[in-house]
Please model this.
Amino acid sequence: MAVWIVLGVVVVVALFWIVQYNSLVRLRNWIEEAWAQIDVQLKRRYDLIPNLVETVKGYAKHEQETLQKVIEARNRLMGGGGRAEQLEANDQLSGALRSLFALREAYPDLKAHEGFNKLQEQLEGTENKIAAARQLYNRTVMQYNTKIQSFPTNIIASVHGFSRSEMLEISAAERENVQVKF
Model:
């Protein structure tokens, strides 16, 4: 009878271990999927930018510096590197795009250009999708980090080498208050 009790306890512990291990693997894979979704949206934006730049070139020939900044930031974004480098390049590209969209106020013909307006709408939609994907990534990382730090799953996580993931944070420039001047 004692053997059956010990065997039952061992089976319960083994099943618990397996279930917890699998849940950690599932969360880690969800983090990778969430990052892949961010990457997909960054690629979509990357593909839209050349069309936008070409449209603006026709109207704003003397705004080459702004266009060059957008092109350079776009190339840095897809130039590789880790997640931190990609996010830094993404922030630089977002700033360059804001400058590019500000040009439309200086050029009434550009403001009225249907192709420019459609591209701007697509980019704005993509920016919203990037923001949503970042939120999903951070939520998944939070769930994963909570799980690997909670008892008794933290024991399983440390035995199998699961480590904490970093959340995506905004840059210092994005934390500053927006200056509105009339």
Q: What stands out?
A: The mean pLDDT is 81. The first helix runs from residue 2 to 59.
